Amino acid sequence: MSEAADDPHGATGLPYSAEELRTERLLLRPLNTGDLDDVHEYQKRKDVVRYLYWEVHDHEESAKHLKKRLAMNQLSEDGDGLVYAVELPDPEGGHGRVVGDMSIFLKSKEHGQVEIGWVFHPAVHGRGYATEAAERVLEICFGTLGAHRVFAQLDPRNEASARLCERLGMRQEALLRQNEIFKGEWGDTAIYGLLDSEYRSR
């Protein structure tokens, strides 16, 4: 690796538009209107939204939420985000099932800072799908976008997400104590991060 590769730089692969991404078992693709029923299946669950900023969605609320996220398909300027549906393809060639979603947010183009997030249906927990999808997203963040640092923010009580961060090689950088009022009570925020140099040396 040349010394120049470690020179300070911002994100280099912008603008970036969402595209289909494949892993061994999954298809990551832009959301579409046909995903509503699959997405609602996990957005309506209390155990899924427990550590998210929104409450349980009824079908209409999921439709409104999906409409907003359909527009999140390109990263160009700070604050932009995109969302990938994580689809479990039908081995028989039929319609696949969306079992979760992965988000990428451009926090600072100048400093190469990118945030990622995820939501998965509990029915598929324990099968490695979240790790597989997140690894593919990290490839985009570091390889295509040229991010310097990728981070995730989560409620430290969300042990499943904390374990996922650790499997990805992310380290806990900070624990912000009672930094926000979250669903009517003081909540903490754990920040996990991974640098491009760390990603390359995993």
Q: Radius of gyration, rounded? A: 17 Å
Secondary-structure-derived class: alpha+beta
Looking across the biggest beta sheet, what order are the strands in? 2-3-5-6-7-8-10-9
Number of helices: 6
Query: Which spans have pLDDT < 50 for at least 5 consecutive residues?
Result: none
The main pleated sheet reads as:
8 strands, mixed
Distance N terminus to C terminus? 14 Å
Helix/strand order: EEEHHHEEEEHEHEEH
Proportion of helical residues: 25-40%
Shape: globular
How much strand?
25-35%
How many strands appear in the DSSP assignment? 10
Oligomer: single chain
Report the mean per-residue pLDDT as an integer: 92
Notes on the structure:
With 202 residues, this protein is α+β, with helices and mostly antiparallel strands. The protein has helices spanning 36-43, 46-49, 59-70, 129-144, 159-167, 196-200, and strands at 16-17, 21-22, 27-30, 74-75, 81-88, 97-108, 113-120, 149-154, 171-182, 185-195. An eight-stranded mixed sheet has the order 2-3-5-6-7-8-10-9, sandwiched between helices. A two-stranded antiparallel sheet has the order 1-4. Strand 7 (113-120), helix 4 (129-144) and strand 8 form a beta-alpha-beta unit. Helix 1 packs across helix 3. The model has no long low-confidence stretch (mean pLDDT 92).
Question: What's a quick, concise take on this entry?
Answer:
Helices cover 27% and strands 33% of the residues. The chain is built from 6 helices and 10 strands, in the order βββαααββββαβαββα.
